[in-house]
Amino acid sequence: MKTLLSLVLASTLAVTASAVAAAPQAHSNVSVSHAWIRVLPGALPGGGYATVHNHGEQAVQLVGADSPAYGHIMLHKSTTEGGVSRMAAVKAITVPAHGQVAFAPGGYHLMMMQAKTPVKPGQSVPVTLHFASGATLKVPFKARPANAIDDTH
Amino acid sequence: MNIKHSPHPLLRPFLTLGPLLLVLTLLLAACSQAPKPKWRLTDIQGHMPDLKFQLTNDDGKAVTAADYKGKITLLYFGYTHCPDVCPLTMTRMHVLMQRLGKLADDTQFLFVSVDPARDTPKVLHQYVTAFDKHAVGLTGSRDAIRALAKRYRAAFDRGKEKDHGGYDVNHSSAIYIFDAQGHARLLATPTSSTGDMVHDLHLLIQMEKNGS
Fold it and tell me: Does A90 touch chain B if contact means CB atoms closer than 8 Å?
C-alpha cells in the first residue's frame, strides 16, 4: 500500500514537474495589436490577421500558432504577381529588432483551419504564437464577419 | 459728365453668357465626335469576347450568360477554401456595391469557382451571401469552368495536397467587367482602387442609359 501510494505520488510529481518544464516562457519583448479573424461560413478556413511588434534588441522568428478553437493553424503568405494569386505556406517570419510585421489581407496571414465548434463574429478566440526561441505569446483574436474591412492601416 | 458706353441692361445677361455659350457649343461639337470615355480601369472593349458560359448557380439551377443580361456584370474567378485573397476581393466588391448605392441594383458580381470539387452550390450560396446580396456563386463541370477561364485568358491550377489535408488553387486575380449586353468592357485588378471602380461603373451605367 505504502509502495503504491509513493508510486502514485511519484508519478504525480513527475507529471507536475514535466508540466512545469514544458510550460513555455511568455515572450516579454513581443506585443501584438489589431488581432482579428475573418470568419467564413460553414467549415471554410478563415484568415487570421495581426501586427506583431518586436520591442527587443534581437530579431525574433515567428514559427507557428495554435488555438484551442481550431484543429490546425498555418503561417501563410498570399502573393499576386503577373495577374495570378497564389498562397504558400511559410516556415518562419522574422520580426526585426524594434520592428514590426503586419499580417494583413493579401499578404501574411494565419490560415485558421478545422474550427472545432463554429466561431461566431464578436467572439474572442485565444491564439498562441510560437517563436523559434521556444517562447510563446497568447493573444486574443477578435472574430469578425466575412465582409469585415481591415482596419489595421 | 462722362458716360461710359455700356450695353442696354436687357442685353447684359446675354453678353455674360456669350463665352459660356461658346464653350458649350465647342463641347457639343466635341461630343458629336464621340471621344473615348476617360476610363480609369483598363479598356478591353473589342479585345475580349462577349460573356458566354453554361454553369450552375448557387441555387443549383443550370444557367447561361443570357440569364445575366440586363445588368452590368463583374466576373471573378476564385474558390471558397481561399482564406485570404478571395475574401479580400469579395469584401472590396461589397464596399463597391455600398458606394454605388442605388446603382448597385443595376450591377451583379459573379464569383466563378475554380474548385468545383469542393464548391457545391450550397457551399457557394453560404459563401457569397456572407459578403453581398449582389454576388452570385457559379460552379459547374471542370470543362465548363476551364472553357470560361480560357475564354478570358484566366489561368488556374490546383496546388499540391497539404500535410493537414486540403489544397490551394492558384488563380487569376482579374475582375472582368461586362455591360448589360454582355460585351467585355473593362478589366480591374484586386488592387484597383474602389474610387476608380466606382468612377468607371458610374460612367458605364450612364453610357448604357444614353444608349451608347
Answer: no
Q: Please give the residue range of the domain that contains residue A132.
A: 25-144
Domain count, chain A: 1
Q: How far is B133 from chain A (nearest CA, A)?
A: 12
- In chain B, where the domains are located: 42-210
Q: Is A19 part of a structural domain of the chain?
A: no
CATH superfamily of B42-210: Glutaredoxin (3.40.30.10)
What CATH number does the domain containing A62 carry? 2.60.40.1890
Backbone region of residue B168 per phi and psi (left: phi > 0; alpha: psi in -120 to 50; beta: other values): beta
CA distance A87 to chain B (A): 7
CB contact under 8 A, B91 and A112: no
Q: Residue B58: CB partners within 8 Å, gap ≥ 6?
A: B121, B122, B124, B125, B128, B129, B136, B137, B138, B139
Angle at A46 between CA B125 and CA A24, to 5 degrees: 160
Integer distance in angstroms from the first to the last C-alpha of chain A?
A: 66
pLDDT digits (tens, 9 = 90+) for A20-32: 444 456 677 999 9
The shortest CB-CB distance from B173 to any of A45, A85, A111 is to A85
Judged by CB atoms closer than 8 Å, whether chains meet at B91 and A83 is answered as no
| Facing residue for A40 by CB, picked from B130, B159, B168 | B130
Q: Is B131 on the interface with A (CB under 8 A)?
A: yes
Whether this model's ipTM surpasses 0.85 comes out as no
Which of B82, B84, B86, B169 to mutate to probe the A interface, most A CBs <10 Å? B84
- Distance (Å) from the alpha carbon of B60 to chain A's nearest alpha carbon: 18
Flag whether A37 is in a domain.
Answer: yes
Domain presence at residue A152: no
What digits encode the pLDDT tens for the residues B78-129? 999 998 999 999 999 999 999 999 999 999 999 999 999 999 999 999 999 9
Say what the pTM is.
Answer: 0.80
Q: What span, in angstroms and rounded, lies between the C-alpha atoms of B71 and B100? A: 14
Is B158 in a helix, a strand, or coil?
strand
